[in-house]
Each structure stands twice: as C-alpha cells, then as structure tokens.
Specification:
The chain is of the alpha+beta class. Helix content is 29%, strand content 27%. It is built from four helices and seven strands. Strand 1 and strand 2 form a beta hairpin. The longest helix has 18 residues.
Length: 164
C-alpha cells in the first residue's frame, strides 16, 4: 500500500457502505448514519466504458480499438470492482480538498477497504484500470508506476491488449 501524504488539504469520510457498483471506476455509497447517498468516481484511474457514450467514442479514436472490444474489457473491469467492493462493503474515502467533484457532480476519491487497502491502487496494479490525469491526482506518478508494472506482467486487461 502506498503512502497517501497530504500534498494539500485532504478530507476523510468514513462509515460508508457500497450500495451499487456503477462501472469499473465508479461506486455509489451510503452514509451509515444520515443515509445520504453519493456517487464516487475513483480518483486518478480510468476503466473502459461499459456502454456507448461520448467517452467510448473518444477512447475508440485514441486507442484505435473497436468500441465493442472496449466495452467487453469494461465489463471485466466492472466485475473486478464488484468483486473488490460488493454491495454492503464498508469503505472510507480520502478526497483532495481542492478537487472534490468532477463535471458531473460525482465525488472524486481514493476509496479504502476496511483492511486499509486502496481500491484505486488495486484496480491499477491488477491491470483493470489505467492512470487518468483529467482531474488533478496527487498519486499520479505512483499510479503510472503501478500501471507500468501491470502492463509488463500482463495483468488483468493487459493480458488481452497492450493499451486501452
């Protein structure tokens, strides 16, 4: 597990339960006390899309891979995230204070399991996501290293393709 050192102010949220896995880089969580729900976008990572959308078209152009293949890979990422954080899983979040939400209103966060492992890191190191720099991520360099190792060892999606 990597050290999450504050390179700026961070916010910690605890006592959350996963109520839905949206795709390979998104969850919906509920606060155990006030029952508020929020959609989480795993900060610093990107998994292939699972349905046709504008981002899938962009990914097709950038990777030169067919959309259906990317969506099939997206389902593998989605299933991996469901295995890591099934409905009911207790999680905690670390948010970067100046970078808490994306353009769709989703909370950008590093998501931690009760054993202290970071889901963002696991998805990268096991090859089911790649680093994503659209939103400022204090762990970008470390995430690039994890992804490079996954590519080298052909983990996860890298077993099938060299880039996604």
């Amino acid at each position: 597990m990597m050290q999450y050192q504050a390179k700026g102010n961070t916010v910690l949220r605890t006592h959350l339960n996963v109520i839905k896995v949206v795709d390979g880089d998104g969850l919906i969580v509920r606060n155990r006390f006030n029952k508020e729900e929020e959609e989480i976008r795993l900060l610093g990572i990107d998994a292939p899309e699972i349905k046709r959308c504008r981002k899938l078209v962009q990914d097709e152009k950038e990777t030169h891979l067919p959309g259906q293949l990317l969506m099939d890979l997206g389902v593998l990422s989605f299933n991996k995230l469901k295995d890591l954080a099934p409905v009911g899983t207790n999680v905690s979040l670390i948010l970067q204070e100046k970078n808490q939400y994306d353009t769709y209103g989703r909370t950008l966060a590093y998501v931690f399991l009760s054993d202290g492992s970071c889901i963002n890191e696991i998805m990268l190191s096991e090859g089911y996501a790649k680093p994503y720099s659209r939103f400022n991520c204090m762990m970008q360099y470390e995430y690039q290293l994890l992804c490079s190792m996954a590519k080298r060892t052909k983990n996860g999606l890298f077993e099938f393709i060299p880039v996604f």
